[in-house]
Design goal:
The complex is a heterodimer of chains A (165) and B (245).
Chain A: H1 3-29, H2 31-34, H3 40-44, E1 54-60, E2 66-67, E3 73-79, E4 84-90, E5 102-109, E6 115-123, H4 131-159, H5 161-164
Parallel strand pairs in A: 4-6
Antiparallel strand pairs in A: 1-3, 1-5, 2-3, 3-4, 5-6
Chain B: H1 3-8, H2 11-43, H3 57-84, H4 87-118, H5 127-146, H6 152-166, H7 169-179, H8 199-231, H9 236-242
Helix pairs in contact in B: 2-8, 3-4, 3-6, 3-8, 4-5, 4-8, 5-6, 5-7
Classes of the chains: A alpha+beta (165), B mainly alpha (245).
C-alpha cells in the first residue's frame, strides 16, 4: 500500500475509533437517562424522583387489575420480579394491555407510594405466534399447572398432622 | 487480483457492467416482493395477540434492515473513496444517501402506524426510535452536504467524514433494545439462534428481506448510473451514449 494511502486509511480508522469512544463514553455516562422507564425495584429503592413526571414499567401482575364499575378508574400492580408497584389510572387502556404482559405508565409517584398515571402504554414482546399454536401452548401450560396443583394437594395431604399420625 | 478493483474505478466499465445486472435484479426484486407481500398479507397466520396489525412487520423489518445495511454501504464507499481516491466510490456514497433516507423514513412511518394500535402511541422517545431518527438526520445531512459546496472534492470529503462519524450510530440502533429499557421490543430475528416467530410467519418475512436486498441493489445501481452520467457528461463515451442512433 502506498504511504499516502496508508495515512488516509489511518485517518479513516481514527475517525471511526474516536467517535466510537466518545459516543460510547457519553452513552455510558447517560445510561440512566437513556432508559425509558424506572423499574418497580428502582422505585422501591428510592432511585426514582417523587412529585415529578416519570415513567415506570414492568409486568402487570396476574389478577391485580381492578376497574371501578361506574367510571374509567382502574388500579393494577406492576412487577419486575423482585418488587411491585401499585398504579392508579383513569382512562382508556391500549388493546394489548393485559395481565401478565408488560406495560409502561407515565405519571408521578405520590408520597403514599402509589403511582398516578396519566398515560399507560402496552409493551409487547418480540414473539409472534398463530392463535392455534398459542392456544395449544396455553393448554399445555394449564395442564402442567393443574397436575402440579394436584401433586401439591397430595403432598399437603400427606404432610397434614392427621396423615402423619 | 487487483485488476477488478482498478477496473471498478472506471465509471465507464462500471456503467457497462451494471447495465447487464439491472434486468435480473429488477426481476428478482419484483418476484420476491410480490411473493412476500401476498404470502405475508394473505396467507401467513395472524398473531394470537396482535391480530392482523402485526402484518406491517413485512414492510417494517425489511425497510429497517436495509436502512441500517445501507448506511454501511454508504460509509464503506466513503472510506474507499477517501483512501483510494476512487471516483466511483464517491458516486456510490452520494447515490446511497437518498435511498437510505427513504428506507429509514419508511421504517419510522410504519413503526408509528404499528405503534398506535399495539402500544397506544404513535411516537415515544425511547432509545431505539430516537436513534433511528438520528439515522434519518444523518442521511439527510449527507444529502445536504453533498450539494452545499462549490467544489466537488470538498463536498465529497465532508460527506465521507460525516458518513464515517455516523457509523457509530448503527450498533447503537441495533443494540439499543438490549442495552436500555425501551418500549420497542427486542429483535425477533437473531444472528444466533432461531427467530422468536412461528416458521409460517417467518418464511414470508425472509422472502421480503431478500426482496428488499435485491430492490436496494437495483436502486443503488440506478442511482449510481445517473450520478456517473451527470459527472462524466463531458466524456466522449457519455456523449456517444446520448447521441440519437
Amino acid at each position: 500500500m502506498k504511504p499516502e494511502r496508508k495515512q488516509r486509511l489511518l485517518v479513516v480508522v481514527f475517525i471511526v475509533v474516536v467517535t466510537g469512544l466518545v459516543v460510547g463514553l457519553l452513552s455510558y455516562a447517560l445510561r440512566e437517562n437513556i432508559n425509558l422507564f424506572y423499574t418497580p425495584s428502582q422505585v422501591a429503592a428510592g432511585e426514582a424522583p417523587t412529585h415529578q413526571q416519570i415513567r415506570v414499567g414492568g409486568m402487570v401482575v396476574a389478577d391485580s387489575f381492578e376497574r371501578a364499575s361506574d367510571s374509567l378508574d382502574s388500579t393494577f400492580l406492576v412487577s419486575d420480579g423482585s418488587a411491585t408497584l401499585l398504579i392508579r389510572y383513569s382512562g382508556i387502556l391500549p388493546d394489548l394491555f393485559a395481565e401478565d404482559e408488560a406495560a409502561v405508565a407515565t405519571g408521578s409517584l405520590g408520597a403514599d407510594g402509589v403511582f398516578v398515571a396519566q398515560q399507560v402504554l402496552a409493551k409487547h414482546d418480540e414473539e409472534y405466534t398463530p392463535p392455534e399454536v398459542a392456544d395449544a401452548m396455553q393448554q399445555a401450560i394449564d395442564k402442567k399447572a393443574a397436575t402440579e396443583a394436584a401433586q401439591q394437594v397430595e403432598s399437603k395431604a400427606l404432610n397434614t398432622p392427621e396423615a402423619t399420625y | 487480483m487487483w485488476q477488478w478493483f482498478h477496473k471498478l474505478g472506471s465509471p465507464r466499465w462500471f456503467y457497462q457492467i451494471s447495465g447487464k445486472f439491472l434486468p435480473w435484479l429488477a426481476l428478482a426484486s419484483m418476484v420476491l416482493i410480490v411473493t412476500g407481500v401476498v404470502w405475508g398479507l394473505a396467507f401467513a397466520p395472524e398473531d394470537a395477540r396482535q391480530g392482523n396489525s402485526f402484518r406491517i412487520i413485512y414492510i417494517h423489518v425489511p425497510a429497517s434492515f436495509l436502512a441500517l445495511a445501507g448506511y454501511y454501504v454508504m460509509a464503506a464507499a466513503g472510506a474507499v473513496g477517501m483512501i483510494w481516491k476512487m471516483k466511483l466510490a464517491d458516486m456510490v456514497m452520494v447515490a446511497a444517501a437518498p435511498l437510505g433516507a427513504a428506507l429509514t423514513f419508511i421504517a419510522l412511518f410504519t413503526g408509528a402506524v404499528w405503534g398506535k394500535p399495539t402500544w397506544g402511541t404513535y411516537w415515544i422517545w425511547d432509545a431505539r426510535i430516537t436513534s433511528m431518527l438520528v439515522l434519518l438526520f444523518l442521511y439527510i445531512g449527507i444529502i445536504a452536504l453533498s450539494r452545499s459546496f462549490s467544489t466537488r472534492e470538498t463536498s465529497t470529503r465532508a460527506c465521507a467524514i460525516l458518513a464515517l462519524v455516523g457509523t457509530v450510530n448503527i450498533p447503537i440502533i441495533y443494540k439499543s433494545v438490549d442495552w436500555w429499557y425501551t418500549l420497542h421490543q427486542p429483535a425477533t430475528i437473531k444472528l444466533t439462534g432461531a427467530p422468536s416467530m412461528h416458521p409460517d410467519m417467518f418464511k414470508p418475512l425472509l422472502v421480503m428481506i431478500l426482496g428488499f436486498y435485491c430492490f436496494y441493489a437495483l436502486v443503488l445501481l440506478l442511482n449510481t448510473r445517473t450520478e456517473i452520467l451527470l459527472r462524466e457528461g463531458r466524456a466522449t463515451w457519455v456523449k456517444e451514449l446520448a447521441q440519437p442512433k
